[in-house]
Design a protein that fits this description.
The protein has 2 domains: 101 residues, Peroxidase, domain 1; 72 residues. Strands 2-1-3-4 form a 4-stranded mixed beta sheet. By secondary structure, it is of the alpha+beta class.
Length: 178
C-alpha cells in the first residue's frame, strides 16, 4: 500500500498544483473521485488488467464511461494515467489529492469508529475536542463497530487515536505477555 502511495504522490501533487492555479479544486475533487470509483468497479478492473485490451481502446471506453463527468483537463489526465500504466493508482491519487486540499483549506478529515452511535450533541462535543487535539478544523465521518466494546477509534491521516476498550485490552494483553 505504501508503494502505491509513493507512486501516486507525484500525480496527486501535480493535479493539486494545477487545481490551485486554475481555482478548480472542487471540480478536480469530483473528477478524481469519479475516476477512482470507475477504476474500483470489478468489471472495469478486469478490463484494465486484461492485456488484450489496448491503450487506445481502454482510453475510449473510459472516456465513454466518464462522459460529462470530466472536463478537457480531466480527460487528458485520464489519458496520461492509461499511457503511463498508472490507472490503478486513481483511488490513491484521489485520496492524496484530498489530503492536499484539506491541508490548503485548513481542515483535516477524521474517520471515527465508535462502539455506539453518537447523538448530535455528543458528536459536536467530540468534534470540538478533536479540533483542540489536532489544532485544525475537523470534518468528521462516523461509523459504528460494536467489536470496539466501548469508546472510539479516530484516524486523521497517519495519526490514530485509539480510545477504545478493545484497544486498551489489546495493549494490556501485550504488556502482560512481555
Amino acid at each position: 500500500m505504501s508503494e502505491l502511495s509513493t507512486l501516486a504522490r507525484p500525480y496527486a501533487a501535480a493535479v493539486f498544483k494545477r487545481a490551485s492555479e486554475s481555482g478548480s479544486a472542487e471540480q478536480w475533487s469530483q473528477m478524481l473521485g469519479f475516476i477512482a470509483a470507475v477504476v474500483k468497479d470489478n468489471g472495469i478492473a478486469a478490463i484494465i488488467e486484461n492485456p488484450k485490451v489496448g491503450q487506445e481502446r481502454l482510453i475510449q471506453l473510459l472516456l465513454d464511461i466518464c462522459q460529462g463527468q470530466l472536463n478537457a483537463e480531466g480527460e487528458n489526465f485520464l489519458k496520461i494515467l492509461v499511457e503511463n500504466d498508472r490507472l490503478t493508482l486513481a483511488p490513491q491519487i484521489s485520496s492524496l489529492y484530498e489530503s492536499h486540499k484539506a491541508d490548503a483549506e485548513g481542515y483535516v478529515d477524521v474517520d471515527v469508529t465508535t462502539a455506539y452511535s453518537f447523538t448530535k450533541e455528543e458528536q459536536k462535543k467530540f468534534t470540538s475536542a478533536l479540533e483542540k487535539t489536532l489544532a485544525r478544523k475537523v470534518r468528521i465521518s462516523v461509523s459504528v463497530d460494536k467489536s470496539l466494546i466501548g469508546g472510539f477509534l479516530a484516524k486523521a491521516g497517519d495519526r490514530v487515536i485509539d480510545g477504545s476498550i478493545k484497544g486498551r485490552l489489546q495493549h494490556m494483553q501485550k504488556t502482560l505477555k512481555a
